[in-house]
Amino acid sequence: MVSLSQPKLPVIHMADLNPGTESWISTSQKVTQALEKYGCFVAVYERVSQQLKKEVLDSLRTPFDLPTDTKINNTSDKPFHGYMRPVPTRPLYQSLGIEHATSLDDVQRFTNLMWPSGNHHFSNTMHSYATLVTELENAVRQMVFQSYGVEKYYESFNESMNYLFKVMKYSAPKPDQTNLGVAVHTDKSFITVLGQINEVNGLEVEIEDGKWITFEFLPLSFVVLATDPLMAWSNGRVKSPRHRVIMNGQEDRYSIVLFSYKKGIIQTPEEIVDQEHPLRFKPFDHYKFLDFVSKDENYLDEKAIKLFCGV
Ligand SMILES: O=C(O)CCC(=O)C(=O)O
Ligand SMILES: [Fe+2]
Questions:
Q1: What is the ipTM of this complex?
Q2: What pTM does this model have?
Q3: % pLDDT > 90, the chain
Q4: Which of 192, 247, 252 is the best mutation target for the ligand 1 pocket, counting ligand atoms within 8 Å of the beta carbon and taking the most?
Q5: Separation CA 210–CA 96 (nearest Å)
Q6: Among 179, 211, 215, which Cα is nearest to 194's?
Q7: Sequence-ordered list of residues with C-beta below 8 angstroms from that of 38, at least 6 positions apart, any chain
Q8: Pocket residue to mutate for ligand 1, from 42, 84, 243, most atoms within 8 A of Cβ
Q9: Which of 98, 138, 154, 225 could, after both became Cys, cross-link 145 (CB 3.0–4.6 A)?
């Protein structure tokens, strides 16, 4: 019997997060290469322990069991940031957004909307998780900036980042339902760090035209995805991968996803623009881009960024 092995996403161990060490430099090269080739990779990141992941899973199931009238209190002035309920075109998916989850006060504000009498365990668990996963996002971003020789922009960029954590539930499809969890799209954040929190697979990434692979759950791992804004910032070097969620089987799936956003303008560093690599995207305001995308379902793929700020 011929066994065809399924291609897998590159797996990178994010063990040493001290900038400048030899292992940091070699990890930076792997990270940037993976983002250029596939637009994503699997990050093994042991700072988030199995125990913490288990507590996050136990915690994040709970708000979804609340009545819809409670969940809709999770609102935001930014698109896609508040409660997204199941809709006919996307019946399996719902999500809640926790903005600025690295601040315990902000997590508590979310918690108090869901449980007016408080829920310290939820707040503390989400806050610990958010802090550690944000460190992973920061390391990846710093590595990419360093690989392109533009680390000098990292600190100022860092000062203007917002971190949105979205907790997502995908219900197992009933026999007469579609198994599409989330339709094909590219991400509009700057970097996405996705934690699949229970062992139900479903995330699929297009690594080449028409070639889709399934992310298979690995303990202590996260999927880091590049996005349209990062692709534009890198002048097209980094790929923004199309991805989707397809549900199989009888179990609900939970994920918790960090989306980083930059307040203000994202601009390709002049150092990575030259005659051979002319500027491909004009400077653009990140949240205005998000508003633009939210106006039309058709903009959920990669053409939106070209329409918005392509040269
Ligand atoms: O839940 C997942 O695995 C993917 C979610 C996703 O792609 C998104 O929210 O942009
Ligand atoms: Fe996505």
A1: 0.98
A2: 0.96
A3: 86
A4: 192
A5: 31
A6: 215
A7: 9, 10, 205, 207, 239, 241
A8: 243
A9: 154
